[in-house]
Give the backbone structure.
Amino acid sequence: MSTWSDEAHQFGRGFESAQIQILRKSVFVRSHFNVIITGTLFPLGSETDANGVLQTIGGRYDNTGKWSRELARSFLRLVGGGKHDPKIFQTLALHIFMAPFTLRRTSSSTWFGEWVIQRVWSRPEPEIILPFPDDETSDLAKQFVRVPRNKDKTDLSLNEIMERADMQKFIAWAPLYRGIVGCIEAEKKMGKTTVNRIAIMEQVVATMLNKTSFSGRLRCFVSFVKALCAKGQRFIVVADRLFPLILTYYV
């Protein structure tokens, strides 16, 4: 038996969840090998997240885990149990120890003598689209959401940290995203514990997109998407959040 976990950084880094505790003790230690698939291996940095990720892959650094004696001793010294000395921790050393069981795909990667990414496929040249000048929305983003600079002085969860970062980033699309945030807060004040954020995004974008003054970033985005459609060009939207995708759909 083997385990394959997609987007494993969402659960594999923590210790608080009963689910991950059960998976580590009952499933991962019994499997032949464990694979975690992620584009963000250490969301809060290797010094904070490496201990949880490593124990998700190979278990504890003792006779109950799957590590060799040498690796177990090394990981225990670097990150073990949250008791490691920050003066001892070295990111480079961690990467060297993890290198033998870490697989990264690049344009030069091969598998049994074959290119993973075929040579006949040329990589597209990225086109950088700069927003139209608009200092007002940048200032608004800084004033609207204050994000703690030192994560060690806050009790925010990972989801809350990411949500705050999203707010500051997307306020640059103001007032669209500001309207979304306002609707979400209004729903919470009415006592609704579960808020359908996607439905709110769709409603605000559909009603406000053609009725509001555009920020510099929004005007540039709308112009770019409309130009692609006018030329009949096909395109793929790659976004780590739903807001840009919903915005593209309604444009």
In short: The radius of gyration is 23 Å.
